[in-house]
Amino acid sequence: MIDHHARLTALRAHLAKQNLTGFVVPLTDEFMSEYVGAYAQRLEWLTGFKGSAGSAVVLRDTAAMFTDGRYTLQVREQVDGDDWQFVQVPATAMTDWLAANTVEGDRIGYDPWLATTGWVAAADAALGANGAALVAVDANPIDALWDDRPAPSPAAMEVYPDDLAGRTSADKRAAIGEWLGERRADAVVLSALDSIAWVFNVRGKDVARTPVALSYAIVRADGTAELFVAPGKVGEDIARHLGNAVTVRDIASFADVLGRFAGKRVAADPDRAVAAIHGALSAGGATIVATRDPSVLAKAIKNPVEIAHHRAAQARDGAAMVRFLKWFEETAPLGTLTELSASDRLEAIRGETGLLRDLSFDTISATGAHAASPHYKATVESDAPILPGQLYLIDSGGQYQDGTTDITRVMPVGPVSDEMRDRFTRVLKGHIAIDTAVFPDGTLGGHIDGFARRPLWEAGLDYAHGTGHGIGAFLSVHEGPQRIGAPNYPGGGPLEPLRAGMMLSNEPGYYKAGEYGIRIENLLLTVKRDIPGGDLPMLGFETLTFVPIERSLIVPALLTEAERAWVDAYHAKVAALLVPLLDGETAAWVEAKCAALV
Question: Whole-model pTM above 0.85?
Answer without folding.
Answer: yes
